[in-house]
Amino acid sequence: MSPPPHRVAVLALDGAIPFELGIPGRIFGAARGPADEPLYEVLTCTPDGGPVRTAADFAIAVDHDASALAGADTIVIPPFTGAYDGADLARALAGVRPGTRIMSICTGSFVLAAAGLLDGRPATTHWGETDRFRKMFPRVRLDPDVLFVDDGDLLTSAGAAAGVDLCLHVVRRDHGSEVANHAARRCVVPPWRDGGQAQYIERPVPEPHDAGTAPVRAWALERLDLPLSLSDLAERAGMSVRTLSRRFREEVGMSPGRWLTRQRIDRARHLLETSDLPVDQIARLAGFGTAVSLRQHLHAALGVSPIAYRRTFHPRRQGDERLSRA
């Protein structure tokens, strides 16, 4: 018998921004299990259960008040433009169970910071609000240059589309990359942008008649099992190493080496989830060469070993675990 869906409560505040408000329902609602069962139940609530105005030209009515937060496994605070009563929000959050995962999208981080939840912890917010955030909440370890920050039970994201990245990251953390990739395809969005990627990429679209690094990235993805060097990529792209490195940072927000490692990790995760290949072979196919190297990179990225990752996210291994506990 399948466990009940993970319950997500989205708190809509006065002046809610409709796009970000709808992200959790869209992404978590697209995450499905092996029998196409929903993996998440998403509830939207307001502090008193009444309607709230949005930042657009309409209001929204909800079916739940803040008591929905007490039964949630995950809480999401989207951004808003209205004023908020700190005392009311403190009362709303007071009923949250210990260990509940709490996420903010964009300036929703101001609510978490005002409640004291981010004191001494890393977080991010929309780059345009960083100066104001720092002045208001100097005890928060703000990183204004990343798409999202995962600090275990507290997660914060930058503006707008970074909320999509954060929700997909959570699906991936909960259920593995295969489920997250399917959810991304259902929503027609990129399946992965690294949380450490810069919020603002100086030139996200190549100049006309300039193919940029896209062709060499596609070429590298077909050869991840090979020991590709920065010089190999530069030669294939017809650029100097210096120009290639600059173009990569402009177009994908990271260095070629970091991008290549990210793709190798994603390949290894996919194989661990979907195949019964030995870890040594997966390490070779992903380009890490040895199981030791794969173990080091996977642990650095996710904090787990290949065996532990497979045990968590491989469907058959999950079934074996359930049977062994029965």
Automatic annotation (TrEMBL):
PROSITE patterns: HTH_ARAC_FAMILY_2. SUPFAM superfamilies: Class I glutamine amidotransferase-like, Homeodomain-like. Keywords: Transcription, Transcription regulation. Residues 214-312 form the HTH araC/xylS-type domain. PANTHER family: ARAC-FAMILY TRANSCRIPTIONAL REGULATOR, HTH-TYPE TRANSCRIPTIONAL REGULATOR RV1931C. This is GlxA family transcriptional regulator.
